[in-house]
Amino acid sequence: MTTTNTHYQSFYQDFLNDPEAFWLKQAQKLNWFTQPTQGVSQCDEQLDHWFADGELNTCYLALDHHIEQGRGEQLALIYDSPVTEQKRTYTYNQLHEAVSLFAGGLKNLGVEAGDRVVIYMPMVPEATIAMLACARVGAVHSVVFGGFAPRELAIRIDDAKPKLVLTASCGVEPSRIIEYKPMLDEALELAEHKVEHCVVFQRPQIKAQLQAKRDLDWQAILEKAQPTDALPLPATHPLYILYTSGTTGTPKGVLREQGGHAVALNYSMQTVYGMQPGQVFWAASDIGWVVGHSYIVYGPLIYGCTTVLYEGKPVFTPDAGAFWRVVEEYKVNALFSAPTAFRAIKKQDPEAELLAKYNVSSLEKLFLAGERLDPATYEWLQEKTGLPVIDHWWQTETGWPIACNPVGIEMLPTKAGSSTVPVPGYQVHILDMDGSQCKANEQGVVAVKLPLPPGCLTTIWGNAERFKQSYLSQYDGYYLSGDGGYIDDDGYLFIMGRTDDVINVAGHRLSTGEMEEVVAAHPSVAECAVFASKDSLKGQVPIAMVVTKEGCAKEDIEIANEIRSSIRAKIGAIACLQTIQVVERLPKTRSGKILRKNLRQLVDGEQIKVPSTIEDPSVIDEIKARWISLNS
Ligand code: COA
Ligand code: AMP
Questions:
Q1: How many angstroms is it from 345 CA to the middle of ligand 1?
Q2: CATH number reported for the structural domain that contains residue 551 in this entry
Q3: What is the pTM of this model?
Q4: Which of 114, 104, 117, 122 is nearest to 183 (CA)?
């Protein structure tokens, strides 16, 4: 099973021999306005940038280029919305027309290269059109996931300082309609930064109230607009900011640059996903997450595929056959989703009877990422579909896979629990606490040798120090991924989970630190700990343990309900705490650090490894007895 003497190995060696030449060769595959001659270079802040002397436009590559190549009548985008019973398709010509016109609308509103535009929208084609239109005029978009509450949106608005916010009147969840506009209004009230305008796309389900002068109607903007051409931009021009959870309550604005991003995504569509231009690629995710940015919007379009924008769920829209219906209807060649989506399907349809109803013969591969792929889901998918089930590992920060089974080079044998091997372009190392290299099979922190390849974050928006501090300062010459894991004798990478306070709930990345801030703000709470417990559907779910203030007269249930509502209101429904347990005290070290790991072990029924530094070991038994009595 060793990876030596394989096509992969020689491809990887090619990269190692001369990384800059390797990437410049990949860059040549794109239609630049000015071809780059420079690989990696450093700016004044000592941060790495790729292809600094090249000029391009990401929107041009994603649309105009394909039309120039004679692919204008190929489908670019398929919109399928079981929640609204709508379907719509766009050829490359049609998408180009819609994007150029909206880009003209942005220009009429005074949006210029470098201006930020926040996009708070559901999964409608207009959201994709807005992203591409921003790229066309050089505006930096920042898409905020529709499931986030006003406070979260306000934090992002204050950080990105956009000229404009683009929104829709509502999102449609299977059980309810979510009005976006009142949430945006509340966020704008909370934010210190004042935006010039909000452009509102009115959906037929709900008509939003527009505030005179500030709010503008999407359609009215289009009526006054003229199509606009793609603006040539330096490769280092920022394409977007995407906020992701860190260990603190302040999300990090991952900044992605145009040139490296386009090169990396084009390369990954071929190497990682083994796609051909003209094929149908479906990432069943949301444009609010990195998977949506990279593999609903930019990757498939830059590479000339047809992409699917699906406004629905894996189950209940209307049933667990939804994914298979979409595959049949649009002859999808590759499907990418999070393990949690397939766990939901498996739960509803364990014998895959709904799968048998559809012709999914177009489907060649299934890709999974976003969280650990558990063996039971992996085996079920393989058995029921008979397809290669490919686990791959990456993060918002990298924007594209770090480790995968490189099917575009060759399909390597798989190993359960492993995301296979580093993608050529990444040098992955396992380091111990002192920064020394771990031996094969020895667990440590997973780090990537600098420079990071093209397409990865180049900084945190407006905070280069935080970028260096969070990712580059721990180990000299390495990027710290935040994940722990090991590499085995055959060079296979096993990701074992986060080493920080980031958790993954139903494929959504959340910060326990941020949740703790909200829980601690409850007037009855003296102190608290939020941690993740294992869940058979969502992978992980957040649990809070709270100690109430002296003399608190409220019932535990009342406090729990208030905390739960507060989390939903301040972060969003996706962060909903599963259990809130009031306890007498929390386990701590003698220096006062809360032992969250012990709490997680206790709740998950694992062996509790109490450190010698614990202040009072009896706390653990006390909480355990209470947990068992309340949860058995
Ligand atoms: N806008 C507003 N609210 C949203 C939302 C959105 N875009 N997405 C989710 N929510 C809300 C839901 O309505 C739900 O609210 P409720 O508690 O009031 O019912 C809450 O957030 C939790 O939603 P979710 O995490 O989706 O859980 P669920 O139990 O409704 O569904 C799954 C479970 C597994 C079907 C669902 O989590 C899923 O499809 N997961 C896959 C996610 C995914 O693809 N992630 C990929 C990232 S790569
Ligand atoms: P996000 O930034 O939301 O994409 O989340 C990134 C994190 O999700 C990673 O740091 C990992 O902890 C986890 N993750 C993503 N893909 C995988 C995978 N294939 N296996 C295990 N964990 C994964």
A1: 14
A2: 3.30.300.30
A3: 0.94
A4: 122
Residue in 371, 481, 492 to alter for ligand 2 test, most ligand atoms within 8 A of Cβ: 371
Kindly state whether residue 562 falls inside one of the protein's structural domains. Answer: yes
CA-nearest of 89, 128, 497, 91 to 296 is 128
Percent of the chain whose predicted confidence (pLDDT) is above 90: 90
User: What's the pLDDT score for residue 1?
Assistant: 47
Q: Looking at the structure, do residues 466 and 513 belong to the same domain, yes or no? A: no
Is the CB of 507 inside a 6 Å radius of any atom of ligand 2? no
Please report the sign of the dihedral spanned by the C-alpha atoms of residue 104, residue 106, residue 107, residue 108.
positive
Query: Cα(418) to centroid of ligand 2, in Å?
Result: 13
Task: Provide the number of structural domains found in the chain.
Answer: 2
64 and 213: one domain?
A: yes
pLDDT band at 5 (very low <50, low <70, confident <90, very high): low
User: pLDDT tens digits for 402-429?
Assistant: 999 999 999 999 998 899 999 999 999 9
**252-257 and 459-460: which strand pairing?**
antiparallel
Assigned domain for 168 exists: yes
pLDDT tens-digit map of 65-90: 999 999 999 999 999 999 999 999 99
Is residue 380 situated within a structural domain?
no
Output the six-digit token pair for 592.
């006062």
CA angle 152, 155, 159 (to 5 degrees): 145
Tokens of 521: 């703000």
**Protein residues whose CB sits closer than 6 Å to any atom of ligand 1:** 146-147, 171, 173, 178, 284-286, 289, 291, 313-315, 337-338, 340-341, 344, 370, 506-507, 573-574, 576
Domain boundary among 422, 456, 486: 486
DSSP H or E stretch at residue 451: none
CATH code: domain of residue 84: 3.40.50.12780
* Residue 558 and residue 420 in one domain: no
Report pLDDT for 448.
98
> Which domain covers residue 531, as residue numbers?
506-631
Instruction: Clarify whether residues 473 and 554 are in a common domain.
Output: no
Phi, psi of 200, deg, nearest 5: -115, 125
Question: For residue range 200-249, what is the model confidence (pLDDT) as tens digits?
Answer: 999 999 999 999 999 999 999 999 999 999 999 999 999 999 999 877 77
Using a 6 Å cutoff on CB, does residue 173 contact ligand 2? Answer: no
Other beta carbons less than 10 A from residue 96's beta carbon = 24
For residue 167, pLDDT over 70 is answered with: yes
In a domain, 382, yes or no: no
155 and 63 in one domain?
yes
Instruction: Using the predicted structure, report yes or no on whether residue 25 has a pLDDT greater than 50.
Output: yes
Q: In the predicted model, what is the mean pLDDT of residues 457-485? A: 96
Residues 216 and 260 both lie in one domain:
yes
